[in-house]
Automatic annotation (TrEMBL), chain A:
Pfam families: Oscp1. One of its GO terms (cellular component) is plasma membrane. This is Protein OSCP1a isoform X2. It comes from Parambassis ranga (Indian glassy fish). InterPro entries: OSCP1 (IPR019332).
TrEMBL record, chain B:
This is WD repeat-containing protein 54. PROSITE patterns: WD_REPEATS_2, WD_REPEATS_REGION. SMART domains: WD40 (SM00320). Residues 1-333 form the WD repeat-containing protein 54 beta-propeller domain. WD repeats lie at residues 250-291. It comes from Parambassis ranga. Keywords: Repeat, WD repeat. Pfam families: WDR54. GO terms for cellular component: centriole; ciliary basal body. SUPFAM superfamilies: WD40 repeat-like. The keyword Methyltransferase does not apply. Gene3D superfamilies: YVTN repeat-like/Quinoprotein amine dehydrogenase. GO terms for biological process: cilium assembly. InterPro entries: WD40/YVTN_repeat-like_dom_sf, WD40_repeat_dom_sf, WD40_rpt, WDR54_beta_prop, WDR55/POC1.
Length: 381, 336
């Protein structure tokens, strides 16, 4: 499958993360200064040259666990803190939003427009800090350089790789249900009406030709849908009208309950995991190590107090969610790699984790598996 | 024309891959096998015709003797040859061939993978059994591997490597009418829509190359000398294989076509796409005027589902089966 998914995965998931955090920061009445600081810190880490360069190397897409670990780390380069339960809910929202966008993407190439929509909105968040805007612009140029010339078939392969990554996830998101883009069973709505993608003809026509290539007959057939001509194509440049609305911010400030999620009752079965986890986990750990290593982190310890963001309505709800053990990976019925059985690898990761410990204070952990599972420890960072 | 029958539940959901359903009818045992790919696993269901017995089996993409390897599967397909049937599974690592019930792996061919990952993904995709005893498999580089299959046993050898396509192979199909009169017996398609028409033999002969229009041809069939090709634009085109003459062009679907199938005895054509629709068509040949016509017969909508596989369950097209992304069932339709 595609070896070029990571940059698009991180920009789009990162973008969704920023949309949600922006909404939560405002819902918590966070000060302008603090909000701006959080956004700037996260955006500059996500779009740092070293991190993007690592992502742009051809490599496969690993498990949700690795993605979540790296995204948590990115979120925590800011002064904001998320408890594991909130991080889990945040990740669910991010992934379901991106799944929706990839699923409904009209043409595989439009994945780029979705990515550019995220980048355009991110630029707005950090527009008062030119240095950070620069990072975003540089990344955007890089993405244009690498992806613009790919043929449609390659984009479809990329899209298929992403769809496998999202497979079996049907978390219900209240804003999606409210806007009727998701059904109560968690599946997205796919209409048989509306404009066809650019480059596709409206279905319904059969043309027959003779041996000389001359059209000899036209006939129509009922399509079972009501399709219309394509709308104008969006811009793939650094700036421009994207036209496509997928990838724009779906959350509003007034309705914080929009970020409510609930699992569907029927859990799909686990895919059979790999029999021998060690070697595969090593490949994935290597990626994790490289990505963490490439993230720019301030070596000067911060003096400001960190503040917590809650993805639930109350602190009590958050605690309950955590206590119920719903946190840390069990909600994802996707290919699960059982890492951490290799002691050497575990030590390696402990060293990497140590590098990023910015202060002596260790956050409290409610997790019963504390000490057993190093990846879970990183989730607490 | 068709109505929905009871679905078959499968162990995992279907992945969004082209041609992600394969059907093999075993008349003597009154059974039908179905295969559906989910990530690194092939789900096989054996269904008895009386609808009472279903047995499931899962095949993983694994290199023999390498405990740790597992890679994503691109396609699984049954190859029906004169002397035997085999199940071929193609993945990022290589090509596996099993006895048709999935019980024993008889052959493994590793793909050449570079030491450090290159920007071009490596995988095998596009499978077809060809007269008389060959199995062809496509590769992401555009190469086609031709395997010589003995009437029994595992002494399978790589007979030829053909380099006509320069883009990733998407699908291939052999002449399915059963007629020995057709000169061409294999068509291969790639990611920019180029089609190659071949005659099988000790050395495969390229009979014709039909240029694409820069749009991926994701599914292709060959029937009575006519190539039926489905594209990412949702269009279906009918070409005369040997000459490349375009017989007909259909604006069939609003999204990328994922699967085509033909019922050889009746000339029924099935097309399925990401737009959630399955359409049934009828192909008629008029040898006197050397013309081929296509007429629309029926639509089925699988609500909110991007379809990834659709196949007739028998040579007349009396029944067909459908799979969709994220769906853990094989939906069946039967003529009313």
């Amino acid at each position: 499958m595609s070896v070029r998914t990571l940059p698009l995965v991180f920009i789009n998931l990162g973008g969704e993360m920023l949309y949600i955090l922006d909404q939560r920061l405002r819902a918590h009445n966070t000060s302008e200064d603090n909000s701006e600081k959080v956004m700037n810190d996260i955006v500059s880490t996500l779009f740092s040259k070293s991190f993007m360069d690592e992502l742009l190397k051809p490599q496969k897409l690993y498990s949700h666990r690795t993605m979540k670990t790296v995204l948590t780390r990115i979120a925590h380069t800011s002064i904001m803190r998320l408890n594991p339960a909130s991080m889990d809910r945040l990740y669910e929202l991010m992934v379901m939003a991106f799944k929706y966008q990839v699923f409904l993407c009209p043409r595989p190439k439009d994945l780029l427009l979705i990515t550019y929509n995220h980048m355009d909105t991110i630029r707005e968040f950090v527009k008062d800090t030119p240095a950070v805007v620069n990072h975003v612009d540089e990344t955007h140029r890089k993405i244009i350089e690498v992806y613009s010339s790919l043929p449609e078939g390659e984009f479809q392969l990329l899209r298929q790789t992403l769809l496998i990554f999202f497979q079996n996830m049907h978390v219900r998101v209240s804003t999606f249900i409210k806007n009727k883009i998701q059904n109560p069973n968690g599946r997205f709505v796919l209409t048989t009406s509306g404009p066809v993608p650019h480059g596709t003809d409206v279905p319904g026509l059969i043309r027959t030709f003779d041996n000389k290539g001359k059209e000899v007959r036209r006939s129509e057939f009922p399509t079972g849908g009501s399709y219309t001509s394509p709308v104008r194509e969006g811009s793939f440049e650094l700036h421009g009208q994207r036209v496509l609305r997928l990838g724009l911010n779906m959350y509003t400030v007034d309705h914080p309950e929009e970020t409510h999620t609930s699992k569907t009752h029927k859990f799909s079965q686990h895919t059979k995991g790999d029999d021998s986890p060690n070697l595969l986990a090593k490949e994935e750990l290597n990626l994790l190590a490289r990505l963490m290593g490439s993230m720019k982190v301030d070596s000067v310890p911060r003096v400001e107090t960190r503040f917590r963001i809650n993805l639930f309505n109350t602190d009590q709800e958050e605690e309950q969610a955590e206590a119920s053990g719903g946190a840390v990976g069990s909600s994802f019925d996707v290919i699960n790699i059982q890492a951490m059985q290799d002691e050497q690898a575990a030590t390696q990761l402990a060293q990497i984790a140590g590098q990023f410990e910015e202060h002596a204070e260790k956050p409290e952990t409610h997790s019963v598996n504390k000490g057993d599972d190093l990846l879970a420890m990183m989730d607490d960072l | 024309m068709y109505h929905k029958e009871k679905s078959i539940q499968i162990k995992n959901s279907a992945s969004a891959l082209y041609n992600n359903l394969c059907v093999l009818r075993i008349a003597p045992r009154r059974l039908t096998y179905f295969t559906v790919v989910h990530a690194n696993v092939v789900n096989m269901v054996s269904a008895s015709w009386d609808g009472l017995n279903y047995s499931h089996r899962q095949l993983q993409s694994k290199e023999p003797n390498v405990a740790t390897s597992t890679s994503l599967i691109m396609q699984a397909a049954f190859c029906v040859l004169t002397s035997r049937d085999l199940l071929v599974v193609t993945s990022q690592k290589g090509i596996q061939m099993y006895e048709s019930d999935g019980s024993i792996m008889v052959y493994w061919h590793a793909l050449e993978t570079p030491e450090t990952p290159t920007e071009q993904a490596v995988f095998a995709r596009g499978i077809s059994g060809v007269w008389e005893n060959y199995i062809c498999v496509g590769v992401s580089s555009g190469a086609m591997l031709v395997f010589d299959i003995p009437s029994k046993g595992s002494n399978i050898t790589l007979s030829e490597v053909l380099h006509e396509h320069s883009e990733s192979i998407t699908d291939m199909a052999s002449e399915c009418s059963g007629s020995q009169e057709c000169i061409a017996n294999l068509v291969t398609a790639d990611d920019v829509g180029n089609l190659c028409v071949w005659k099988s033999g000790e050395e495969f002969q390229l009979l014709n190359k039909i240029p694409g229009f820069d749009m991926s041809c994701s599914s292709v069939k060959l029937w009575k000398g006519t190539v039926v090709a489905g594209y990412g634009t949702g269009q279906i085109r009918l070409y005369e294989a040997v000459t490349g003459i375009l017989h007909a062009e259909v604006n069939a679907h609003a999204r990328w076509i994922y699967s085509l199938d033909i019922a050889p005895f009746s000339g029924l054509l099935l097309s399925a796409a990401e737009d959630s629709l399955v359409r049934v068509w009828h192909l008629t040949m008029t040898p006197e005027t050397n013309s081929v016509e296509i007429a629309h017969l029926h639509n089925e909508c699988v609500t909110d589902t991007q379809i990834c596989g659709a196949k007739f369950c028998d040579g007349d097209g009396y029944a067909f089966a459908v799979t969709g992304y994220d769906l853990s069932e094989i939906i069946r339709y039967v003529q009313s």
